[in-house]
What we know:
Layout: E1 31-34, E2 38-44, E3 51-55, E4 63-65, E5 67-68, E6 73-78, E7 84-92, E8 95-97, E9 104-107, E10 110-117, E11 134-142, E12 147-155, E13 168-172, H1 188-197, E14 205-209, H2 226-243, E15 253-258, H3 260-271, E16 278-282, H4 308-313, E17 317-323, H5 328-340, E18 346-350, H6 356-366, H7 372-379
Helix pairs in contact: 2-3
Amino acid sequence: MKNYFNGYNAGPMDFGQPEQHKKDGNSSSAVTLLEEGGVRFRIYEQGVNSVKVQFDDEENEVRYPLVKDRDGYWSLELYDIPAGIHIIRWYFDGEEKLCTTAPVIFYGNGARNYIDVPDEKADCYILKDVPHGSVRREYYYSSVTEQFRICWVYTPPFYDESRKSYPVLYALNGGEENETAWLWPGKINLILDNLTAENKIEDMLVVMTAGYVFARDKIRNNAILENFSALMEQDVIPFIEDKYRVIPCKEYRAIAGNSLGASQAQWTAFNHPELFDYIGVFSGRILEELPGQRGHYSPADFFIEENADIFNAQHKLLFYARGTEEYAQQQEKEMEELKKRHIEAIFYSCEGNHSWMVSRQAMLYFLPLLFREESEKQQR
């Protein structure tokens, strides 16, 4: 009998309420973004003596108190908040609780409140008046986990009106996240819409499924790499190619991920060179083994100088991206080591730490590199 429940897909899926983007001060959300990196917290809460908020990414763990007015509303305004995703903890009389009227995402293996402060230097993540693709939720049965799982599929503008077939990118989430990660904190659908409107990328589908693959009666440590690779090969790719108009060959497939997903992208693509021509590794280690998988995985196992020509011929793009504040000391050494081994790769670096701001920037740079050669061949 099939098991219809997959625990890692059990959390709320429709995260990321758009109210946080309102700036008129009349939002029904507990969070309103203000100008110049400001944010207003405002909530009506009875029966408590204190309400505080804490930014989860602050080292000093300051809890900022909200002030109660005569009408029973607790409020606070803060300014000069850095652009990007910030996880917010709410405390009511010292007890941490989820604020149900503030934006929510799946993060840290659970529902978390957050704010997303726009980057005024980059507007490619903003909802604009351009043709929009569709985001569809699909259920597929996994032979690896013997459960039904969820994937999200982005289709480009006018997909339903067209008869053409498309290339596809498989986008992998980071650790303690799920299949919604590239949609809510990643905003990949908005990035794709905006780049498509500017004619900077090829039309493509993007598929997102949770990175943890726990299979019954199998080694739990394999959930991150071996099981995920099998899931992609046996379940996800066949499901997508059976249901959607995609071109079923490696020249029209790409795989990319951030953090944990970066390791999974390398593992899957390197072990299955017949599947993907384009590989994106965002905020991931290049030459070190994955923690907890010692003896099972290291990209360096594939970067052997004697086999460099064979390895390079197995794909068209190996793309590494990293923030200037993450693994900074290793980055230059790793790049030099790959060059010594004659491994062909593109390296991209942008300001930032191990965060979604870096992953967004990496995806923004990565997408225009995909499928151009194939498109030019079709036009000849």
